[in-house]
Amino acid sequence: MNMDREIDPYIRTEEQRARAGQVEELAARFAKRAERHDREGSFPFDNFADLREAGYLKLMVPRAFGGEELSLYDLVMLQERLAYGDGSTALAVGWHMGQMLHLRTTRKWPQPIFEQLCHAVVRDGAMINTFASEAASGSPSRGGRPETTAVRVEGGWQLTGRKTFSTLSPILDRFVVTAYIPEEEAAGDFLVQRTDQVTVVETWDTLGMRATGSHDVVLNQAFVSEDRRLIGKGTEDGGGWLLHIPACYLGVASAARDFALSFARTYKPNQLAEPIATLPSVQHTIGEMEVELRTARSLLYAVAERWDREPDSRTSLKPDLGLAKYVATNNAIKVVDLAMRIVGGTSLSRQLPLERYYRDVRAGLHNPPMDNTVLQNLAAAALGEASQ
Protein backbone atom coordinates (compact mmCIF):
# COMPACT_ATOMS: atom_id res chain seq x y z
CA MET A 1 0.00 0.00 0.00
CA ASN A 2 1.33 3.42 -0.94
CA MET A 3 0.79 5.28 2.31
CA ASP A 4 1.12 9.04 2.59
CA ARG A 5 4.82 9.25 3.38
CA GLU A 6 4.30 12.59 5.07
CA ILE A 7 3.22 10.62 8.13
CA ASP A 8 6.48 8.70 8.41
CA PRO A 9 8.25 11.33 10.57
CA TYR A 10 5.72 10.54 13.30
CA ILE A 11 7.30 7.09 13.61
CA ARG A 12 9.92 7.45 16.34
CA THR A 13 11.20 3.93 17.02
CA GLU A 14 11.95 0.77 15.08
CA GLU A 15 9.27 -1.01 17.10
CA GLN A 16 6.71 1.53 15.93
CA ARG A 17 7.94 1.17 12.36
CA ALA A 18 7.45 -2.61 12.49
CA ARG A 19 3.92 -2.28 13.87
CA ALA A 20 3.05 0.39 11.33
CA GLY A 21 4.20 -1.88 8.53
CA GLN A 22 2.11 -4.75 9.83
CA VAL A 23 -0.98 -2.54 10.06
CA GLU A 24 -0.41 -1.16 6.57
CA GLU A 25 -0.46 -4.74 5.27
CA LEU A 26 -3.76 -5.35 7.06
CA ALA A 27 -5.17 -2.10 5.70
CA ALA A 28 -4.25 -3.07 2.15
CA ARG A 29 -6.10 -6.36 2.63
CA PHE A 30 -9.14 -4.58 4.09
CA ALA A 31 -9.20 -2.06 1.23
CA LYS A 32 -9.93 -4.91 -1.19
CA ARG A 33 -12.99 -5.91 0.84
CA ALA A 34 -14.24 -2.44 1.76
CA GLU A 35 -16.39 -1.83 -1.30
CA ARG A 36 -18.29 -5.11 -0.86
CA HIS A 37 -19.00 -4.57 2.83
CA ASP A 38 -20.03 -0.98 2.12
CA ARG A 39 -22.50 -1.99 -0.60
CA GLU A 40 -23.95 -4.82 1.47
CA GLY A 41 -23.85 -2.98 4.78
CA SER A 42 -22.37 -6.22 6.08
CA PHE A 43 -20.18 -6.58 9.13
CA PRO A 44 -16.54 -7.39 8.19
CA PHE A 45 -16.06 -10.57 10.20
CA ASP A 46 -13.18 -11.46 7.88
CA ASN A 47 -11.31 -8.27 8.81
CA PHE A 48 -11.77 -8.91 12.49
CA ALA A 49 -10.49 -12.46 12.13
CA ASP A 50 -7.36 -10.97 10.59
CA LEU A 51 -7.05 -8.40 13.38
CA ARG A 52 -7.37 -11.13 15.98
CA GLU A 53 -4.80 -13.32 14.23
CA ALA A 54 -2.36 -10.39 14.01
CA GLY A 55 -2.67 -9.69 17.74
CA TYR A 56 -4.08 -6.22 17.12
CA LEU A 57 -6.93 -6.55 19.62
CA LYS A 58 -4.58 -6.99 22.59
CA LEU A 59 -2.24 -4.07 21.90
CA MET A 60 -3.76 -1.82 24.58
CA VAL A 61 -3.98 -4.54 27.25
CA PRO A 62 -1.50 -4.11 30.15
CA ARG A 63 1.71 -6.14 29.84
CA ALA A 64 0.95 -7.75 33.19
CA PHE A 65 -2.02 -9.51 31.55
CA GLY A 66 -0.31 -10.48 28.29
CA GLY A 67 -0.84 -7.33 26.21
CA GLU A 68 1.49 -4.75 24.70
CA GLU A 69 0.34 -1.73 26.76
CA LEU A 70 0.77 0.69 23.88
CA SER A 71 0.45 4.45 24.34
CA LEU A 72 -2.24 6.79 23.04
CA TYR A 73 0.31 8.09 20.52
CA ASP A 74 0.76 4.53 19.23
CA LEU A 75 -2.99 4.04 19.04
CA VAL A 76 -3.42 7.19 16.94
CA MET A 77 -0.60 6.16 14.62
CA LEU A 78 -1.99 2.66 14.03
CA GLN A 79 -5.65 3.64 13.75
CA GLU A 80 -4.87 6.25 11.11
CA ARG A 81 -3.11 3.63 9.02
CA LEU A 82 -5.88 1.08 9.48
CA ALA A 83 -8.53 3.59 8.36
CA TYR A 84 -6.53 4.23 5.19
CA GLY A 85 -7.71 0.80 4.09
CA ASP A 86 -11.23 0.72 5.54
CA GLY A 87 -12.77 3.44 7.67
CA SER A 88 -15.60 1.26 8.98
CA THR A 89 -13.29 -1.43 10.30
CA ALA A 90 -10.96 1.12 11.87
CA LEU A 91 -13.75 3.06 13.57
CA ALA A 92 -15.39 -0.11 14.88
CA VAL A 93 -12.24 -1.67 16.31
CA GLY A 94 -11.19 1.75 17.58
CA TRP A 95 -13.98 1.67 20.15
CA HIS A 96 -12.57 -1.54 21.58
CA MET A 97 -8.99 -0.32 21.45
CA GLY A 98 -9.81 3.06 22.96
CA GLN A 99 -11.87 1.63 25.77
CA MET A 100 -9.16 -0.83 26.69
CA LEU A 101 -6.80 2.13 27.03
CA HIS A 102 -9.43 4.06 28.99
CA LEU A 103 -10.04 1.19 31.41
CA ARG A 104 -6.30 0.68 31.84
CA THR A 105 -5.53 4.28 32.69
CA THR A 106 -8.60 5.17 34.77
CA ARG A 107 -9.01 1.84 36.59
CA LYS A 108 -12.72 2.57 36.65
CA TRP A 109 -13.69 -1.10 36.73
CA PRO A 110 -13.27 -3.40 39.72
CA GLN A 111 -9.82 -4.93 39.25
CA PRO A 112 -10.90 -8.62 39.13
CA ILE A 113 -13.41 -7.93 36.33
CA PHE A 114 -10.88 -5.90 34.37
CA GLU A 115 -8.32 -8.70 34.68
CA GLN A 116 -10.87 -11.24 33.42
CA LEU A 117 -11.59 -9.04 30.41
CA CYS A 118 -7.89 -8.61 29.65
CA HIS A 119 -7.28 -12.35 29.76
CA ALA A 120 -10.27 -12.93 27.46
CA VAL A 121 -8.94 -10.36 24.99
CA VAL A 122 -5.49 -11.96 24.95
CA ARG A 123 -6.64 -15.58 25.00
CA ASP A 124 -9.82 -15.49 22.91
CA GLY A 125 -9.70 -12.22 20.99
CA ALA A 126 -12.66 -10.87 22.95
CA MET A 127 -13.65 -7.24 22.49
CA ILE A 128 -15.60 -4.67 24.47
CA ASN A 129 -17.77 -1.64 23.82
CA THR A 130 -20.23 0.45 25.80
CA PHE A 131 -23.81 0.78 24.58
CA ALA A 132 -25.20 4.02 25.95
CA SER A 133 -27.07 5.83 23.15
CA GLU A 134 -30.84 5.59 22.91
CA ALA A 135 -33.45 6.95 20.53
CA ALA A 136 -35.15 9.09 23.17
CA SER A 137 -32.14 10.31 25.14
CA GLY A 138 -29.66 10.58 22.25
CA SER A 139 -25.94 10.52 22.80
CA PRO A 140 -24.84 10.08 26.44
CA SER A 141 -22.45 12.99 25.91
CA ARG A 142 -25.54 15.23 25.86
CA GLY A 143 -26.48 14.18 29.39
CA GLY A 144 -29.79 12.46 28.70
CA ARG A 145 -31.10 9.95 31.25
CA PRO A 146 -31.19 6.40 29.87
CA GLU A 147 -34.62 4.82 29.45
CA THR A 148 -33.09 1.37 29.80
CA THR A 149 -33.79 0.30 33.38
CA ALA A 150 -32.01 -1.95 35.85
CA VAL A 151 -34.28 -3.59 38.44
CA ARG A 152 -32.82 -5.42 41.41
CA VAL A 153 -33.69 -9.13 41.59
CA GLU A 154 -32.33 -12.02 43.59
CA GLY A 155 -28.61 -12.34 42.92
CA GLY A 156 -28.33 -9.31 40.67
CA TRP A 157 -30.22 -7.15 38.20
CA GLN A 158 -32.61 -7.38 35.27
CA LEU A 159 -32.02 -4.92 32.44
CA THR A 160 -34.72 -3.93 29.98
CA GLY A 161 -34.40 -1.41 27.17
CA ARG A 162 -33.13 -0.70 23.67
CA LYS A 163 -29.75 0.77 22.73
CA THR A 164 -28.91 2.46 19.42
CA PHE A 165 -25.55 3.05 17.67
CA SER A 166 -24.28 -0.21 19.19
CA THR A 167 -21.04 -0.51 17.23
CA LEU A 168 -19.51 -4.01 17.08
CA SER A 169 -22.82 -5.56 18.19
CA PRO A 170 -22.68 -8.45 15.68
CA ILE A 171 -19.40 -9.78 17.09
CA LEU A 172 -19.40 -9.00 20.82
CA ASP A 173 -20.10 -11.65 23.41
CA ARG A 174 -20.07 -9.05 26.21
CA PHE A 175 -20.61 -5.32 26.43
CA VAL A 176 -21.32 -2.53 28.91
CA VAL A 177 -24.82 -1.09 29.16
CA THR A 178 -25.76 2.13 30.93
CA ALA A 179 -29.10 1.84 32.67
CA TYR A 180 -31.24 3.89 35.02
CA ILE A 181 -31.71 2.41 38.49
CA PRO A 182 -35.12 3.63 39.77
CA GLU A 183 -34.49 2.76 43.41
CA GLU A 184 -31.33 4.88 43.41
CA GLU A 185 -32.57 7.58 41.01
CA ALA A 186 -29.22 7.32 39.24
CA ALA A 187 -27.61 5.63 36.26
CA GLY A 188 -25.15 2.77 36.48
CA ASP A 189 -22.95 0.62 34.25
CA PHE A 190 -23.44 -3.12 33.88
CA LEU A 191 -21.35 -5.75 32.12
CA VAL A 192 -23.82 -7.81 30.09
CA GLN A 193 -23.16 -11.22 28.55
CA ARG A 194 -24.79 -12.13 25.25
CA THR A 195 -27.72 -14.43 26.08
CA ASP A 196 -31.20 -15.27 24.80
CA GLN A 197 -32.43 -12.14 26.58
CA VAL A 198 -30.27 -9.98 24.30
CA THR A 199 -31.28 -9.42 20.66
CA VAL A 200 -29.41 -7.56 17.95
CA VAL A 201 -31.89 -5.88 15.61
CA GLU A 202 -30.18 -5.07 12.32
CA THR A 203 -31.21 -1.46 11.90
CA TRP A 204 -27.87 -0.02 10.70
CA ASP A 205 -28.49 1.22 7.14
CA THR A 206 -26.70 4.53 6.88
CA LEU A 207 -25.06 6.91 4.44
CA GLY A 208 -21.52 6.28 5.67
CA MET A 209 -19.53 3.91 7.88
CA ARG A 210 -21.95 1.24 6.74
CA ALA A 211 -19.91 -1.73 7.95
CA THR A 212 -19.50 -0.86 11.64
CA GLY A 213 -22.37 -3.08 12.76
CA SER A 214 -23.90 -0.25 14.82
CA HIS A 215 -27.30 -1.92 15.13
CA ASP A 216 -29.88 -1.67 17.90
CA VAL A 217 -29.50 -3.96 20.88
CA VAL A 218 -32.64 -4.96 22.77
CA LEU A 219 -32.46 -6.24 26.33
CA ASN A 220 -35.51 -8.12 27.59
CA GLN A 221 -35.01 -8.63 31.32
CA ALA A 222 -31.39 -9.56 30.70
CA PHE A 223 -29.89 -10.85 33.94
CA VAL A 224 -26.65 -9.36 35.25
CA SER A 225 -25.14 -10.80 38.41
CA GLU A 226 -24.43 -8.47 41.31
CA ASP A 227 -20.68 -8.56 40.77
CA ARG A 228 -21.09 -7.38 37.19
CA ARG A 229 -22.36 -4.01 38.20
CA LEU A 230 -19.34 -1.88 37.41
CA ILE A 231 -18.73 0.22 40.47
CA GLY A 232 -15.16 1.42 40.67
CA LYS A 233 -13.41 4.51 41.96
CA GLY A 234 -11.21 5.29 39.00
CA THR A 235 -9.54 8.50 37.92
CA GLU A 236 -10.32 11.01 35.20
CA ASP A 237 -8.29 10.91 31.98
CA GLY A 238 -9.80 13.79 30.02
CA GLY A 239 -11.16 11.41 27.39
CA GLY A 240 -7.85 10.98 25.60
CA TRP A 241 -8.87 7.54 24.37
CA LEU A 242 -11.42 9.21 22.07
CA LEU A 243 -8.57 10.33 19.79
CA HIS A 244 -9.07 7.02 17.99
CA ILE A 245 -11.96 8.84 16.28
CA PRO A 246 -10.07 11.72 14.61
CA ALA A 247 -7.24 9.32 13.76
CA CYS A 248 -9.73 7.26 11.78
CA TYR A 249 -11.02 10.21 9.76
CA LEU A 250 -7.52 11.42 8.97
CA GLY A 251 -6.80 7.95 7.61
CA VAL A 252 -9.82 8.18 5.32
CA ALA A 253 -8.74 11.67 4.20
CA SER A 254 -5.22 10.41 3.48
CA ALA A 255 -6.62 7.70 1.25
CA ALA A 256 -8.66 10.29 -0.67
CA ARG A 257 -5.63 12.56 -0.98
CA ASP A 258 -3.47 9.76 -2.36
CA PHE A 259 -6.14 8.72 -4.85
CA ALA A 260 -6.41 12.29 -6.12
CA LEU A 261 -2.61 12.60 -6.41
CA SER A 262 -2.39 9.39 -8.40
CA PHE A 263 -5.20 10.56 -10.66
CA ALA A 264 -3.59 13.97 -11.22
CA ARG A 265 -0.25 12.39 -12.10
CA THR A 266 -1.74 10.06 -14.71
CA TYR A 267 -4.87 11.69 -16.18
CA LYS A 268 -4.16 13.58 -19.39
CA PRO A 269 -7.14 14.94 -21.33
CA ASN A 270 -6.61 14.96 -25.08
CA GLN A 271 -6.36 18.76 -25.13
CA LEU A 272 -3.35 18.72 -22.80
CA ALA A 273 0.22 17.67 -23.51
CA GLU A 274 0.86 16.76 -19.87
CA PRO A 275 -1.18 15.23 -17.02
CA ILE A 276 -3.38 17.61 -15.05
CA ALA A 277 -0.86 17.61 -12.17
CA THR A 278 1.03 20.22 -14.19
CA LEU A 279 -1.87 22.69 -14.10
CA PRO A 280 -1.46 25.55 -11.59
CA SER A 281 -5.11 25.26 -10.54
CA VAL A 282 -4.71 21.56 -9.68
CA GLN A 283 -1.46 22.22 -7.85
CA HIS A 284 -3.23 24.93 -5.86
CA THR A 285 -5.93 22.46 -4.81
CA ILE A 286 -3.28 19.89 -3.86
CA GLY A 287 -1.62 22.54 -1.74
CA GLU A 288 -4.93 23.22 0.00
CA MET A 289 -5.26 19.52 0.79
CA GLU A 290 -1.78 19.49 2.29
CA VAL A 291 -2.53 22.47 4.53
CA GLU A 292 -5.64 20.81 5.94
CA LEU A 293 -4.09 17.37 6.38
CA ARG A 294 -0.74 18.41 7.80
CA THR A 295 -2.27 20.92 10.20
CA ALA A 296 -4.69 18.35 11.58
CA ARG A 297 -2.08 15.63 11.85
CA SER A 298 0.48 17.78 13.65
CA LEU A 299 -2.12 18.85 16.21
CA LEU A 300 -3.45 15.33 16.73
CA TYR A 301 -0.05 13.76 17.37
CA ALA A 302 1.12 16.64 19.56
CA VAL A 303 -1.92 16.35 21.83
CA ALA A 304 -1.62 12.55 22.01
CA GLU A 305 2.03 12.86 23.01
CA ARG A 306 1.19 15.40 25.71
CA TRP A 307 -1.50 13.12 27.09
CA ASP A 308 1.00 10.28 27.34
CA ARG A 309 3.75 12.45 28.80
CA GLU A 310 1.67 14.39 31.35
CA PRO A 311 -0.59 11.94 33.21
CA ASP A 312 -1.28 14.43 36.00
CA SER A 313 -2.56 17.02 33.51
CA ARG A 314 -4.94 14.84 31.51
CA THR A 315 -8.12 16.40 32.82
CA SER A 316 -6.91 19.90 31.94
CA LEU A 317 -6.09 18.67 28.42
CA LYS A 318 -9.78 18.08 27.64
CA PRO A 319 -10.20 21.32 25.61
CA ASP A 320 -7.12 20.48 23.52
CA LEU A 321 -8.25 16.89 23.03
CA GLY A 322 -11.58 18.17 21.77
CA LEU A 323 -9.84 20.68 19.55
CA ALA A 324 -7.76 17.90 17.96
CA LYS A 325 -10.96 16.02 17.12
CA TYR A 326 -12.68 19.15 15.83
CA VAL A 327 -9.81 20.15 13.55
CA ALA A 328 -9.06 16.63 12.32
CA THR A 329 -12.67 15.79 11.48
CA ASN A 330 -13.52 19.07 9.77
CA ASN A 331 -10.22 19.19 7.91
CA ALA A 332 -10.68 15.58 6.78
CA ILE A 333 -14.03 16.52 5.26
CA LYS A 334 -12.35 19.38 3.39
CA VAL A 335 -9.55 17.12 2.13
CA VAL A 336 -11.99 14.58 0.68
CA ASP A 337 -14.01 17.36 -0.93
CA LEU A 338 -10.88 18.83 -2.52
CA ALA A 339 -9.79 15.39 -3.74
CA MET A 340 -13.13 14.95 -5.48
CA ARG A 341 -12.78 18.36 -7.13
CA ILE A 342 -9.45 17.26 -8.62
CA VAL A 343 -10.88 14.01 -9.95
CA GLY A 344 -14.06 15.65 -11.21
CA GLY A 345 -17.39 14.06 -12.03
CA THR A 346 -16.01 10.51 -12.08
CA SER A 347 -15.35 10.86 -8.34
CA LEU A 348 -19.10 10.23 -7.89
CA SER A 349 -18.84 6.79 -9.47
CA ARG A 350 -19.35 3.84 -7.18
CA GLN A 351 -16.61 2.11 -9.14
CA LEU A 352 -14.12 4.40 -7.40
CA PRO A 353 -13.50 4.63 -3.65
CA LEU A 354 -13.79 8.42 -3.44
CA GLU A 355 -17.55 8.46 -3.05
CA ARG A 356 -17.23 6.03 -0.14
CA TYR A 357 -14.58 8.23 1.47
CA TYR A 358 -16.91 11.19 1.03
CA ARG A 359 -19.74 9.39 2.80
CA ASP A 360 -17.60 7.85 5.51
CA VAL A 361 -15.74 11.00 6.49
CA ARG A 362 -18.93 12.93 7.23
CA ALA A 363 -19.78 10.51 10.04
CA GLY A 364 -17.07 12.16 12.11
CA LEU A 365 -19.36 15.12 12.73
CA HIS A 366 -21.62 12.84 14.74
CA ASN A 367 -18.95 11.15 16.86
CA PRO A 368 -18.11 12.63 20.27
CA PRO A 369 -17.20 15.21 21.22
CA MET A 370 -19.57 17.15 18.98
CA ASP A 371 -18.42 20.44 17.44
CA ASN A 372 -20.58 22.67 19.62
CA THR A 373 -19.39 20.90 22.76
CA VAL A 374 -15.78 21.44 21.75
CA LEU A 375 -16.40 25.14 21.13
CA GLN A 376 -18.19 25.51 24.46
CA ASN A 377 -15.30 23.84 26.29
CA LEU A 378 -12.78 26.07 24.57
CA ALA A 379 -14.84 29.14 25.43
CA ALA A 380 -15.14 28.05 29.06
CA ALA A 381 -11.37 27.52 29.25
CA ALA A 382 -10.74 30.98 27.80
CA LEU A 383 -13.23 32.68 30.11
CA GLY A 384 -11.80 30.78 33.06
CA GLU A 385 -8.36 32.27 32.63
CA ALA A 386 -7.28 34.80 35.21
CA SER A 387 -7.79 38.30 33.90
CA GLN A 388 -4.60 40.23 33.17
Automatic annotation (TrEMBL):
Residues 246-363 form the Acyl-CoA dehydrogenase/oxidase C-terminal domain. Residues 132-221 form the Acyl-CoA oxidase/dehydrogenase middle domain. Gene3D superfamilies: Acyl-CoA dehydrogenase/oxidase, N-terminal domain (1.10.540.10), Butyryl-CoA Dehydrogenase, subunit A, domain 2 (2.40.110.10), Butyryl-CoA Dehydrogenase, subunit A, domain 3 (1.20.140.10). The keyword Cell inner membrane does not apply. Its EC number is 1.-.-.-. GO terms for molecular function: oxidoreductase activity. InterPro entries: Acyl-CoA_Oxase/DH_mid-dom, Acyl-CoA_Oxase/DH_mid-dom_sf, AcylCo_DH-like_C, AcylCo_DH/oxidase_C, AcylCoA_DH/ox_N, AcylCoA_DH/ox_N_sf, AcylCoA_DH/oxidase_NM_dom_sf. The keyword Hydrolase does not apply. It holds the Pfam family Acyl-CoA_dh_M. Its cofactor is FAD. Keywords: FAD, Flavoprotein, Oxidoreductase. SUPFAM superfamilies: Acyl-CoA dehydrogenase C-terminal domain-like, Acyl-CoA dehydrogenase NM domain-like. Residues 13-100 form the Acyl-CoA dehydrogenase/oxidase N-terminal domain. Belongs to the acyl-CoA dehydrogenase family. This is Acyl-CoA dehydrogenase family protein.
